[in-house]
Description:
Elements: H1 4-12, H2 17-24, H3 28-35, H4 43-53, H5 57-60, H6 78-91, H7 96-102, H8 107-114, H9 122-132, H10 136-139
Amino acid sequence: MSNERLEDLRDEHDLKKKDVAKAIGVVESVYSEWENGKLSIPTKRLNQLANYFEVSIDYMLGISNKRTRIKSSDAIDMKLVSARLKEIRKSLKLTMRDLSDKFNTSSSAISNYENGKFLILSSFLIELCKYSNYSIDWVLGRSDNKHLK
């Protein structure tokens, strides 16, 4: 599945793929595969791309149609992310095992995300936020708005 919104943002700024790739420090072929939906965009890079285009990640990925101007630090606060992930899980009234079963991952992966040992994988983050109606930007500390609009 292609990421049409990402392509639209690039076109809107009259940029070539190589321009965006260079700006965020990746090779053009990797950026191209992200835009074409052949590769999952890592969480750190989602944050960088959204900052580069000054939009929400939710908008950039087409999860929300509300265009919000956001620019944050490229650094992701792992402590904040882990606390927010735990808050989402508890709001869903799920154990780590329940959550891991629901999203076909391991309980240890959930534990590592919630304890800030590893940055959450973007594919899991996207699915969790779509399911729970929480904003990816809120989870990553880019916005104070918890829920998708």
